[in-house]
Structure formats: structure tokens, C-alpha cells
Amino acid sequence: MIARTDDSRLASLKGRLVVSCQAYPGEPMRSPTIMAAVAQAVVEGGAQGIRAQGIEDLKAIRPLVDVCLIGLVKRGSDGVFITPTVADALDCVTAGADIVAVDGTRRDRPDGQPLAATIAAVHAADALVMADCGSLDDALYSISVGADCVGTTLAGYTGARPVSRGPDLELLAELVAHVSVPVIAEGRVRNPDDALACLNAGAYAVVVGTAITHPTRIARTFADQLAHGARRSDPEGSR
């Protein structure tokens, strides 16, 4: 299978920011309407792409933004849970995804189909595939079966590499040096300096999620810092 690396939808992301608009189950913002509003807001702020999960979220976001939409489905939290089946991938395309993000590892999938089957089905539906990888081996495997681009999304989460404090720049550089398709940096990009470091390491585009779209985590960072500072400055707190 041949990757479609010259596709205009993928080309629109080159050197640009992609924002992951996702909320965790049970959180106040876990609503397609809210995620669609977040997507609109970050596009107004300059995002050139949106990454979103869940069919209803994709359906809500698609009519409201005209940038590249990377779609996925999450099922569970162990093993292959990012767009784990061929049917899930096709549902993402039907919901409006330009690029479908899938697990790019060699692990068994719940429908028993190989990654190649998912990629072939997505290509037949005129969409592209982003393979979320945790190692160079994952990326090379995904590309061999037709992935159009690869991401560092799973770095530190498959057992192949330790979890890095920030973005896994070492893996990013390794992928850039050894693969023939665009490499998208994703995972633990916490500030603009991290994002720029990813571009400087050769990333085709950079995905930022929690640092932009997760107010609970952002607020906790501020609250914890203030609480820590207050304890240090309070003489009573040192006794």
C-alpha cells in the first residue's frame, strides 16, 4: 500500500498547531456541544487542525470548522484502544474525519483484523491514516502497511520506552531520521517552548491537548503552585 503523503489535507498541517479537543469521561466538559465550541475557539486562536475522539464529537465539530479534522474512537484504556477496529475507523470517516488516528502497534486488535485492513478501508473511503506509535518499530510497521503519517502519541505507554518528562524528543528525532512519511509530535507538549522544540527536532506538525483544552488540569497546576508557595512563605508552615 502507498501512503498519501502529498494529500492537501495533510499538507495543510505542515509546521502548524493541531489542538486535541478531548475531555475525559465523567468530566463537566464531556459533551459534544462543548467540545465543538472548544474546537471553534482554538481555530480562532490559530490552530490549523483539530484532533477529537468520539463519533458524536466529530459530528458536532465538523460543520463548525474548516480545518483538517483528525478523528478517533477510544474503547477502554488497555491494549489497542485507539480506533481499535475497522468499523470504528470507518465510523470516523462517516462522521467527517479527514484523517483517522489509529493504534500503530503490532498488537492484536479486538476485531481480529490487521492494521493493514483498517488502513485499506480508510483509504477506500477517501480519508487518510495517522498511526499513533510508541517506538520506531511501530512506525516502520505502520508505514509498511500504508500509514500516511505517524505520531509519537504512544511514546512511553506501550512498554517500548520510558515516559519522558516532556515530549519524547529522542523518539521524535529517531522517527524523523528513519521514516519516509510526516512525523507528528504528540504527547506531553506542555508549553510553546515544547512545541517549538518539536518543530526544531523535525516534527511535521505538533499536537497539543491538555495544556490548551483541559481547564481542570490547568487550574490544578496554578492552584498547586500557589499552595506550595504559600507554605514556603508561611513561617507557621515551617514548624
TrEMBL record:
Question: What Gene Ontology terms describe what this protein does at the molecular function level?
Answer: N-acylglucosamine-6-phosphate 2-epimerase activity
Which pathway does the record list? Amino-sugar metabolism; N-acetylneuraminate degradation; D-fructose 6-phosphate from N-acetylneuraminate: step 3/5
Q: Which residues cross the membrane?
A: none
For this record, the Gene Ontology CC terms, alphabetical, are: cytosol
Q: What is its EC number?
A: 5.1.3.9
- Catalysed reaction, written as an equation: an N-acyl-D-glucosamine 6-phosphate = an N-acyl-D-mannosamine 6-phosphate
For this protein, the record's PANTHER family field holds: N-ACETYLMANNOSAMINE-6-PHOSPHATE 2-EPIMERASE-RELATED
Q: Which HAMAP family match?
A: ManNAc6P_epimer
What is the protein named?
Answer: Putative N-acetylmannosamine-6-phosphate 2-epimerase
Organism for this UniProt entry? Kribbella sindirgiensis
Query: Gene name, please?
Result: nanE
